[in-house]
Amino acid sequence: MKNYYLILFLFFNSSLFSQYCSTGGPTSGVDSNVQTVSLIGESGAINFTGCPGVIGVQNLTNLGTTLNAGSNYTSQIKFGTCGGNYTGAGQAWIDFDQSGSFDASESIGTWSGIPPVATSIFNFIVPFGAQNGITRMRVNQQEGGTLPLNPCASFSWGSVMDFSITITNGVDCSGYIGDDINDPIVVSSLPYSNTGDNSYCYSNQNPVYSSPDVYYRLLPNPLMESISVSLCGSLFDTFLSVIDANGNILAFNDDSDECGSQSSLTFNTNGVGIAYIIVEGWGSQMGNYSILIEGNYLAAEELELQNLVLFPNPTAEFIQLRNITGKIELFDASGTALLSVSNYAGEQIDLKKYSRGLYFVKFVKNQKQFSEKFILN
Is the separation of the CB atoms in 119 and 160 below 8 Å? Predict the structure, then answer.
């Protein structure tokens, strides 16, 4: 199963940030088709008359209405024909959580039979947790189909059409960040811990799973060797992935040895400028999660560095390295590069222009990369 989702994740990498499926629907415009759709909301109304049938997904988002969270509404849909009468099924959904997908829980009504039939009356309540803003209503009719229908399916005869729905009095997500790569939660320092809930105010950006995603962004410190990320303690089955600024996959994990169905991973930061950590659920799972991000720094192996002397430490004006030659680099505690010396030969390094605090010196010894920390006071 894990190998199967690995293939899916790699396959969908080029379209990692896609939204509503728009390539399914009928391949013919004749016979079974949705004939009418109506929905009267708080302002505006959808009043649609079909025929002739349209191939593929019909974008009718120029037609829409406004619905209030917590209120009752009635949609009237006539599942009919633009030609012959054949048995089939119909279904309608509204994407209340604006996840970019039409979940089973978002179905507002179903029909099955052989046209001609009476108009179907779908009474539904907009959930109190529906997200404010513009979303979509999808109506499907599939000749020969069986319930429940797949809102993204391709088939021969029928209809797939999208309308615009504006939700008000629901959840205000204007203050939430992390919904996509363009508005991530910024990780400013490590170790970093946070708790969240992806069950509302977050949409589905990764087509491998239908679960909503939360994006974190961090800039690895040059002194780091790798970064470890853990979702242990989350309340649902998670999926964790890491990509770079170009969308290349750096690492991913479904189930971990550390905490079972919650995910954890470690990825190498060598050459990584920006890393995006994506938190989501397995399948459509969602809920409360806990994330811990830790940096693993270059280790100074005692036997290899037993002759190294960095002095004085702490210091007030300068440092000096003994038994180290070649290139050395100076960084502050945030990982910002301050100084680079290409051919260091044991001379004093003047620090009077720098502020008090923790600093690192990065260097190479015995073809391995190390770092030493010191305090400037």
Answer: no
Per-residue pLDDT for the chain (377 aa), expressed as one digit of tens each? 444 444 445 444 433 434 689 999 999 999 999 999 999 999 999 999 989 999 999 999 999 999 999 999 999 999 999 999 999 999 999 999 887 889 899 999 999 999 999 999 999 999 998 999 999 999 999 999 999 999 999 999 999 999 999 999 998 988 889 998 999 999 988 999 999 999 888 888 876 788 889 999 998 887 788 999 999 999 999 999 999 988 899 999 999 988 999 999 999 988 788 999 999 999 889 999 999 999 987 655 543 454 567 888 889 999 998 878 888 999 888 788 899 999 998 899 999 999 988 888 888 776 777 778 888 98
Residues 222 and 250 both lie in one domain: yes
Distance CA 322, CA 347 (A): 9
Joined together, the tokens standing for residue 311 give: 């002095």
Which domain CATH number covers 140?
Answer: 2.60.40.2950
Domain match, 40 and 154 both: yes
Please report, as a single letter, which amino acid is at residue 195.
T
Domain range for 269: 185-297
Say yes or no: 269 and 342 in one domain: no
Q: Which two tokens stand for residue 215?
A: 């994006």
